[in-house]
């Protein structure tokens, strides 16, 4: 069955009154002429598959050489690798659901978050640890490495946004914010080694500007030995300046003069005393002298890295503490890994890095997913289904998911519509899920049947659709057209949905009907609900209103990323 055939049975007055923003169909005469020209046209039915910021310290006295500018996208060091981070084509790993099992069935009362599909992977075994000590009150340590997924386009986009934030902060003289931003890129972007080295250089520049020479020295040391060859002389010069400021003795060639055993022990005792007295700056300087000038056993090196990390932690210099804890945790000889892991996790959280249950850093994309899902889940649990729907729609529009994860998000979108009594859109989404996935089984079939009952869509005793006759379809189309012309978009969407759901339409007619339903949703200000209809309309190249569908689709996407759509007809059966 085609939409043209339906309209051939509708009265000419209704056919000619189809307003401009609904997909137009030919007049009865035009339809008859086309039928005569193509008598062998076949009918077919298709279903679319579908913490606080570190304290700002006074600017230190400048060394005799002028500090080198930070790497920027438009100039100098960050350019090549950051662009590759943004634009190279890589395989992205879609997030799979981690939680399966029984879920609460929806009731007639307010919705609960048990109805929602959980899409954020959680890792078991969160590490905790007491504030244990090693000679100084809380200076011993432990280890971990960060976890990251393959870099997706969205993750690269988020990394680029973080880079712009850091670059602008640096230009404005806010070096603490800049250091945090560049540290987040190192921790969360999954970037290639070249880009990571560039970000370490930027972190080092920020720390140097802040007069935090121990942190700057450590950051310079993280730069790959084969990276930034054009900056190697600057890096070497800066490291020498940091060592001089920290009291690390060097010879005429710039090599560190080794400490004797007695000198190392003396510095440790003085550093421990300074730490216990709350003089963390002095303690950090002395522990750094030991790290630079002593030949340490693996155990002692791990403990000293942890102690340096604790000094930064106590001064709330969390970006500087992170690499020290990571280096300590990378040493197998570290005694108390739980404490170091806890401080590392807390340091990450303090600069805005979300972590999994094991304390590992999430990628930018994983963090965005978690934050969005948490906001949507909270909105859903409080009954703010419109906000929840907008956020879930943003997720499926802006992110990359495998088919199963897409089905789970669509379930959440469908449940938002279902809870708002928007049965036409809920049915549309439930049917998409039914075609693509096996999730929710009986519960899904129950919701489909319930939506059809609310929409007066006839089914037999087995719940199967009873096909509409062409006269019934024509009558529904007339009613939908009249309702749309009169501004009753809810009724129009209901009538068009009954035609769409009954089946029997060819692919182009289904696309046209999807466009008409999308227009109804758009007129109601339900921009999130309109998006999937416009997307289906655009799957058929034969649809005449494709430019309008694309324009409206783009507008809907802009609107859901700005402010929530206004609530309309919040109570009662809507569509």
Topology:
Blueprint: H1 3-9, H2 12-16, H3 28-37, H4 79-87, H5 153-171, H6 175-188, H7 193-209, H8 213-221, H9 232-246, H10 261-276, H11 280-293, H12 298-314, H13 318-329, H14 337-350, H15 364-381, H16 385-398, H17 403-419, H18 423-436, H19 441-454, H20 470-485, H21 489-502, H22 507-523, H23 527-537, H24 546-560
Summarize this structure briefly.
This protein is mostly helical.
Structure in words:
This protein has helices spanning 3-9, 12-16, 28-37, 79-87, 153-171, 175-188, 193-209, 213-221, 232-246, 261-276, 280-293, 298-314, 318-329, 337-350, 364-381, 385-398, 403-419, 423-436, 441-454, 470-485, 489-502, 507-523, 527-537, 546-560. The chain is built from 24 helices and no strands. It folds into two domains: 3-47 and 366-560, Serine Threonine Protein Phosphatase 5, Tetratricopeptide repeat (Alpha Horseshoe); 79-361, Tetratricopeptide repeat domain (Serine Threonine Protein Phosphatase 5, Tetratricopeptide repeat, Alpha Horseshoe), CATH 1.25.40. The protein has 575 residues and is mostly helical. The protein is elongated, with a radius of gyration of 31 Å. Helix 6 (175-188) packs antiparallel against helix 7. Helix content is 57%, strand content 0%.
């Amino acid at each position: 069955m085609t939409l043209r055939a339906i309209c051939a049975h509708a009265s000419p007055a209704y056919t000619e009154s189809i307003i401009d923003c609904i997909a137009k169909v030919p007049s009865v005469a035009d339809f008859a002429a086309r039928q005569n020209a193509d008598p062998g046209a076949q009918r077919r039915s298709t279903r679319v598959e579908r913490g606080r910021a570190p304290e700002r310290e006074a600017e230190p006295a400048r060394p005799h050489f002028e500090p080198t500018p930070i790497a920027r996208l438009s100039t100098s060091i960050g350019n090549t690798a950051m662009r590759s981070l943004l634009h190279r084509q890589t395989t992205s790993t879609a997030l799979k659901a981690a939680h399966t099992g029984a879920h609460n069935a929806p009731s007639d009362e307010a919705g609960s978050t048990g109805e929602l599909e959980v899409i954020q992977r959680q890792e078991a075994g969160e590490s905790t640890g007491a504030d244990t000590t090693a000679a100084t009150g809380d200076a011993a340590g432990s280890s971990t490495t960060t976890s990251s997924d393959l870099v997706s386009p969205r993750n690269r986009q988020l990394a680029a946004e973080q880079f712009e934030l850091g670059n602008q902060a640096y230009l404005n003289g806010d070096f603490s914010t800049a250091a945090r931003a560049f540290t987040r890129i190192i921790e969360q972007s999954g970037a290639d080694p070249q880009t990571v080295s560039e970000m370490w250089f930027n972190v080092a520049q920020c720390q140097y500007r802040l007069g935090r020479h121990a942190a700057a020295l450590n950051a310079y040391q993280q730069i790959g030995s084969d990276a930034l060859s054009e900056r190697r002389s600057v890096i070497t010069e800066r490291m020498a300046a940091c060592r001089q400021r920290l009291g690390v003795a060097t010879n005429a060639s710039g090599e560190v003069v080794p400490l004797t055993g007695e000198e190392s022990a003396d510095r440790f005792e003085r550093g421990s005393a300074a730490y216990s007295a709350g003089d963390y700056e002095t303690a950090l300087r002395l522990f750094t002298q030991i790290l630079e000038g002593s030949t340490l056993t693996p155990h002692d090196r791990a403990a000293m890295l942890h102690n340096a990390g604790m000094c930064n932690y106590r001064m709330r210099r969390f970006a500087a503490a992170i690499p020290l804890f990571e280096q300590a945790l990378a040493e197998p000889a570290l005694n108390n890994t739980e404490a170091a892991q806890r401080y590392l996790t807390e340091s990450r959280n303090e600069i805005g890095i979300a972590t999994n249950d094991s304390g590992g850093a999430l990628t930018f994309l994983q963090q965005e997913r978690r934050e969005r899902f948490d906001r949507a889940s909270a909105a859903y649990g409080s009954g703010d289904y419109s906000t929840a729907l907008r956020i879930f729609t943003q997720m499926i529009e802006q992110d990359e998911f495998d088919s199963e994860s897409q089905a789970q998000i669509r379930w959440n979108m469908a449940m938002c519509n279902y809870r708002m009594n928007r049965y036409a859109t809920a049915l549309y989404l439930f049917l998409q899920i039914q075609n693509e996935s096996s999730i929710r089984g009986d519960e899904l079939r129950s919701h489909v049947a319930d939506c059809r009952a609310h929409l007066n869509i006839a089914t037999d005793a087995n719940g199967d659709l009873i096909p509409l006759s062409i006269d019934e379809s024509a009558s529904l189309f007339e009613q939908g057209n009249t309702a749309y012309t009169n501004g009753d978009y809810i009724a129009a969407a209901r009538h068009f949905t009954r035609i769409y759901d009954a089946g029997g339409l060819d692919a182009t007619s289904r696309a046209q009907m999807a466009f008409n339903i999308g227009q109804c949703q758009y007129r109601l200000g339900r921009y999130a609900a309109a998006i999937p209809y416009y997307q289906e309309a655009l799957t058929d190249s034969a649809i005449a209103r494709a430019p309008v569908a694309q324009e409206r689709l783009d507008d809907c996407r802009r609107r859901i990323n700005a402010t929530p759509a206004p609530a309309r007809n919040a109570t009662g059966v809507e569509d």
